[in-house]
Design brief:
The structure is a homodimer. With about 260 residues, the first copy, chain A, is an alpha/beta fold. Chain A has one domain (about 5-255): Carbamate kinase (3-Layer(aba) Sandwich), CATH 3.40.1160. Chain A has 8 helices and 14 strands. Chain A has helices spanning about 10-15, 15-30, 45-50, 65-90, 130-135, 160-170, 205-210, 220-230; strands at about 5-10, 35-40, 55-60, 60, 95-100, 105-110, 120-125, 140-145, 145-150, 155, 175-185, 200, 235-240, 250-255. In chain A, a hairpin with a 2-residue loop joins strand 3 (about 55-60) and strand 4 (about 60). In chain A, helix 6 packs parallel to helix 8 (about 220-230). The mean pLDDT of chain A is about 95. The interface between A and B is large, with 36 and 36 residues.
Chain lengths: ~260, ~260
């Protein structure tokens, strides 16, 4: 099977035009099939602030009300997505910007209301891997915005990490999928204060051990759980690294 | 050759969710290959106002500065485009939202600065008809936002009427193309005060005559000139009609 690199980028790289340009320059150099999933950093929050729309948070969780969904659709689906596409096209990468609504690629369910009503947030139910595989085999580079739909006309704000993981799982049938999460640090760190203490490889046993020892904690736990789930569903490996290092093969590699 | 309907919609239909829903319901019923080009109505201007960005007009012409381009990309490329796509997907139409940057479908040149600097406005140079034809033959319904790019990383605001005409011309090689412009009135009127005075057909001779008589004037002249140019380039016919009438075959038909 052909190799496919799925790369998720977000945060400061997406917010800062110079950092984004540098990242896309590196991304363009990756050979073979590739797919980019982008988040939106704080750009949506900034636009909401400018428009005087309150950033709704309940019990620490961000809520996507109707106004926020509009902003997310504008910023993620329009501004960021189309600028990335134009930038990649200038580098002769045949980029195609997509949300989950386009071609019905990613269908999700509006998150059920329990203790918290998250609003217009989608939990991914189905990724059309066959269609994405066809696009990839035509040499197209899909650029996915973190927006899905419920197939009943409703767009839904969806976590970009989840989109990357679900897309990787759906494409594992067609490609040798390598999933790469770019984030602020060089990888999973032994010592959060020391950016050079990157753990180079983590398997399921080591993960369990590190969680017990409190080395891996908080937000990193669900991130790695998602990574292991992707691997259990056929993804070859998951790498967590700094956006600046995607060509270097550095970072933390997660495998069975 | 297969028939292809290219429909351009804008103005109030796009601004008003109920009108848009009705229009898309009708659009979904059109059989065979189809492609939708949408404008943005006043939604971009409204967002600019909310953000305190001045609507720049020089000698009656709207100027697209960097801030306005951002808004246009958000509203046309994101909000409107993705909502149309989600709405069509709910009606089992396999819609794919696109700008000219996606797949390098429409390349344009930034309009040269002469008496007026229009800013980030693009004049269409090349439409990749072959690629669009392939998508259409797969049963995909492209939904084009009025944004193109220069292939050097710059997005450009582009007139939706022009995108519709240029796309129609590029696809005339592959399909029997029927181009339909939806607008506020029932068609080209003999008497602008009487909405029932629709001229049912106009050919080149009649057009010349009506212009001389002052029946066709102002903004309608370039609209019809574009229509005739499309027909000269192989488009079968161009219809100007009310969005509410697209299934009825009413309006003004322009032909050789």
């Amino acid at each position: 099977m052909d190799k496919l690199n799925i790369i998720k980028v977000g945060g400061k790289v997406v917010e800062d035009p110079a950092a984004l340009e540098q990242f896309l320059q590196d991304f363009a150099k990756i050979s073979g099939h590739k797919l980019l999933v982008h988040g939106g950093g704080t750009l949506a929050t900034e636009l909401a602030k400018q428009l005087g729309i309150e950033n709704k948070i309940t019990e620490g969780r961000r809520i996507t009300d109707a106004e926020t969904l509009k902003i997310v659709t504008m910023v993620y689906g329009g501004l960021i997505n189309k600028n990335i596409v134009a930038c990649l096209q200038a580098k002769n990468i045949n980029a195609l910007g997509l949300t989950g609504a386009d071609l019905n690629l990613i269908r999700s369910d509006k998150r059920p209301v329990k203790e918290i009503d998250y609003g217009y947030v989608g939990d991914v139910k189905e990724v059309q891997g066959d269609l994405l595989a066809e696009l990839l085999k035509l040499g197209i580079v899909p650029v996915l915005a973190p927006i899905t739909h419920d197939k009943n006309g409703q767009l839904l704000n969806t976590n970009a990490d989840t989109i990357a993981a679900e897309t990787a799982k759906a494409l594992a049938e067609y490609f040798d999928v390598h999933l790469i999460y770019c984030f602020e640090k060089k990888g999973v760190l032994m010592d959060p204060e020391d950016d050079n203490s990157v753990i180079s490889e983590i398997d399921a046993n080591l993960f369990k051990e590190y969680v017990e020892q409190g080395i891996i904690r908080e937000g990193m736990i669900p991130k790695l759980q998602n990574a292991f789930e992707a691997i259990h569903c056929g993804v070859k490996d998951v790498t967590i690294t700094k956006a600046q290092d995607i060509l270097l093969g550095k970072g933390t590699r997660i495998m069975l």
